[in-house]
Amino acid sequence: MHTHTSAKKIHFKNLRANMARNFFGAFAVIAGIGFALIVQAITINGSSQLGAGSADTLMFESSTLFTGVTHQFPSITIGKQGVGGVTFFNGTIVNSTVKDDGSDNPVTFGDNIRVDGRIFRGAKQGPETDGVNPILVDDNFETSGNTRMKGTLTVNGASTLTGDVTIGGNETISKNATIEGSAIVRGNQTIVGTLTVGEAALTAATLANTDVVETITADWVNTANPWSASEIADVTRTVQLLLTSFYNVDATNSGAIVPTSASTQPAFIVSTEGNVFLRWTNADTDPAGIAFIVPNDYTSGGTVKITTQVASGTTGDNDILGKIWKVSDNQSASTKTFTNLTGGTNFDSGITGGNIKVVSLTLPDTLTLAAGDHVSFSIERSSGSDSIDVHSIALEYTAKQ
């Protein structure tokens, strides 16, 4: 005769009372849920003691306490679909098994992991000093969200940034860096190694709002993308108009200026120290002039700087007058006239007699120059009661690099 035994559930609603009444029964219950309790090398099968078969389920509906040192479970399930469970570990999770070759077997998590607290390795929360006990990631690392670091980022290998990079603080790169996307640095940037930027990224638009302070110690060579004139700042340049090349340009007394002059004519004077200068006495009114070509690097502006000196008895009523006549290539010279420059009236007002003063004569808005123009410049003492000495004359303008 064949007897069929069906699986059954055995409930323990008051396990502690049962264990108190039957000490040996308590050991049988404990062993029946899968623990191996070893007492003097004796193994007790709790399931058979309670009359449970291998397909039966033992259910505990009250709190259960196991006080042994080690409990072994082939498998354990906590919670069920729709109802979660909580596992309390006051200690360390360790996989004590090894591979066939004796190497370590890791603890394996076979599903997604959600951590509601913080992850740290040391004995206390937060990083330890001197980099002791850091978290070690022994594989490639990828994040799908934003990554924010409050400490220092140290990269010992190569770094490749394929997207936009925004750095809000200072950045120090001690190795080579390759940036394939856009990079915005809001702090200071120090590069000890080599910075490689694609040529397409260095355009006038990308450099328009960039302030660069750099010392170039070797030749700058960029034949593929040379600097254009608009990308290089203009500079102020000065050209000396040689004083001894000036000529008396008065219509009546025109000719070379000599050390001894007749009435109304300026004269070249050599001081006892050997300085050469051009002097107008209070009776001299003839103009002195020079011709020159506007330099090829000229872009704008034009100021004639005259170094003057007035005798010790200055009255503040001395005037000098500068004029420019200019003609451009392929223009008629016969239709051109002189234009007065601005400045020079009462130029000696407020200065101590005998002191040097630089007087600036500027081009009026009606007069413009261009590179290559032919210019005649003249200067004269227009009024005053003192002698006027001129030590040097120069043209100052804005030049392209």
Structure description:
Keywords: Membrane, Transmembrane, Transmembrane helix. The chain crosses the membrane at residues 21-42. InterPro entries: Trimer_LpxA-like_sf. The protein has 401 residues and is mainly beta. The protein folds into 3 domains: 9-60, no CATH class; 153-232, no CATH class; 236-399, Jelly Rolls (Sandwich), CATH 2.60.120.260. It has 4 helices and 21 strands. Strands 10, 13, 14, 16, 19 and 21 form a 6-stranded antiparallel sheet that branches. The protein has a 6-stranded antiparallel sheet with strand order 12-11-15-20-17-18, with no helix packed on it. A 3-stranded parallel sheet has the order 3-6-9, with no helix packed on it. α1 crosses α2. The chain is rod-shaped and about 145 Å long. Residues 1-5, 14-24 and 33-39 have low confidence and may be disordered.
